[in-house]
Write a structure and sequence with these properties.
The protein is of the alpha+beta class. The protein is built from 6 helices and 4 strands, in the order βααααβββαα. The chain has helices at about 5-15, 15-25, 35-55, 65-75, 135-140, 145-155; strands at about 1-5, 85-95, 100-115, 120-125. The mean pLDDT is about 85.
C-alpha cells in the first residue's frame, strides 16, 4: 500500500474526510482562487529551479498575474542563492515496514557548501494568505511532512 503525507495528515485531521476522499473517491468542487494562485506559483518556481539545475538562464517572467508577480518578488529577494540544485520535483517511493511505501514529491533538494563539505536540504514551497500563522518556523520542527521528507531524502541520497 502506498501512503502519502497528505493522506496521513487528512486522516489525523478527520478520518471521515479521509474515507470520503481516498476510499470512496469523493472530490471537492473546483479549487479556490487562492489555491489556483498557489499552484501557479509552484509551477513557476519549479521552472525557475529546473533551469538552475540544467544551468540555463532564467526565463524572464511577465508580471501579468499575481502568481508571476510573487515569483518575480521571490527571485528579487533571493538573487544570489549559494546552494546547488540537486533535484526538482523529485517523486519518491520509500519502503516502510511490511507492504507499505511512503510516497510523495519533494519540491527541491539542494546542497549548500560549508567549510568542509555540503549541507543537504529539502525545500518545500508554500503559499498562503497574508497574515496566516500556519507556516511559521516554530511549526516546521513538528510538521509531519517535513520530518518524513527529510527521512525519505536520507534514504534516497545518503546511501
Amino acid at each position: 500500500m502506498n501512503i502519502t503525507c497528505s493522506q496521513i495528515k487528512l486522516f489525523q485531521f478527520c478520518p471521515a474526510a479521509y474515507q470520503e476522499k481516498y476510499v470512496v473517491g469523493i472530490e471537492k468542487d473546483s479549487p479556490s482562487e487562492g489555491r489556483a494562485v498557489g499552484t501557479r506559483v509552484h509551477e513557476l518556481l519549479e521552472n525557475h529551479f529546473r533551469a538552475r539545475l540544467l544551468l540555463k538562464d532564467r526565463v524572464p517572467l511577465d508580471t501579468d498575474s499575481e502568481a508571476e508577480a510573487l515569483v518575480q518578488a521571490y527571485c528579487g529577494h533571493y538573487p544570489r542563492e549559494t546552494f546547488e540544485v540537486v533535484d526538482v520535483e523529485r517523486e519518491f517511493k520509500v519502503p516502510l515496514r511490511g507492504q507499505h511505501n511512503l510516497c510523495g514529491k519533494m519540491d527541491l533538494i539542494v546542497k549548500e557548501p560549508t567549510e568542509s563539505s555540503y549541507l543537504w536540504k529539502v525545500m518545500d514551497q508554500k503559499t498562503e494568505k497574508a497574515g496566516s500563522l500556519s507556516n511559521l518556523p516554530e511549526k516546521w520542527a513538528v510538521d509531519l511532512q517535513a520530518s518524513l521528507y527529510i527521512w525519505a531524502a536520507e534514504k534516497l541520497y545518503m546511501r
